[in-house]
Amino acid sequence: MQKSTDSRFLKKILTDTEIEQLHHCDDPDKALWSFWACKEAAYKVLKKQTSDAAFVPRRWSVHFRSPCAQPEDQKPAEFTTGDVLISENKSIPFLLFSSGAYVHCLAADRLDVLDKANWRIDVLPEGDQQSIDPSAFARSCLTRALSVFFGCDPCQIKIFRAQDKDGELQPPVVSRDGIQSDIDVSLSHDGQFVAYAFLP
After folding, report:
1. Per-residue pLDDT tens for 83-142?
2. Which of 7, 38, 77, 125 has its Cα between 20 and 30 A from that of 115?
3. Taking the domains of the chain in order of start, what are their residue ranges?
């Protein structure tokens, strides 16, 4: 909250046009994190296309298209489509979900692919949330979902991240019974929320 008033931060991650739009929003914090979520999701797509892709949010611009129909199980969340313009000839389409508690974005190399995505937002279990590893919890949520999708035991599913030659972690991949799957997955977490998405 209130990060939208930090002009130095805004200039690091938003274009001048986005900053201007933010100042005219009814909810500037929601607008800020919507811009951020879209750019971060676009970066995940780029990273899968090119392992040495750089995250330069100040140079990328978010363009919203229009609100879209809400799935019955997601109301009262708001759904909006759009594109993150990376360069003159490259853009990444996205689907943005927002509610009073969170913003969440899915991106892909084509908009129609997003209609096929399986995704979910979960909340860390009640109790001492400080002692729960959100990355591990997100992986366990995704593992359960994949086991239902594949119709197999969760112990047959493994999610891991390889390292490149410089030791940087690469996007997560899935193996089933020790054989790497080509299923596309994504994981994220922030605060009490974790999320996963996968494309068959």
Report:
1. 999 988 899 999 998 887 888 999 999 888 888 899 999 999 876 666 788 999 999 999
2. 125
3. 1-114, 116-200
Enter the pTM of the model.
0.82
Whole-angstrom Cα distance, residue 84 to residue 91?
Answer: 5
Residue where the block lists tokens 């800020």 = 32
CA atoms within 13 Å, Cβ hemisphere of 34: 27
Contact 106, 198 (CB under 8 A): no
Burial of 99 (0-12, 13-18, 19+ CB in 10 A): middle
pLDDT at 70 over 70: no
Q: Which residues pair with 70 in a beta bridge?
A: none
Cα 5 to Cα 20, 28, 32, 34, distances in angstroms = 12, 9, 10, 15
Distance CA 130, CA 50 (A): 35
Sheet holding 179-180, edge to edge: 157-160, 173-176, 179-180
How far is the CA of 183 from the CAs of 168, 169, 174, in angstroms? Answer: 22, 18, 7
Q: What is the pLDDT of residues 154-181, one digit of tens each?
A: 999 999 888 777 777 778 889 999 888 8
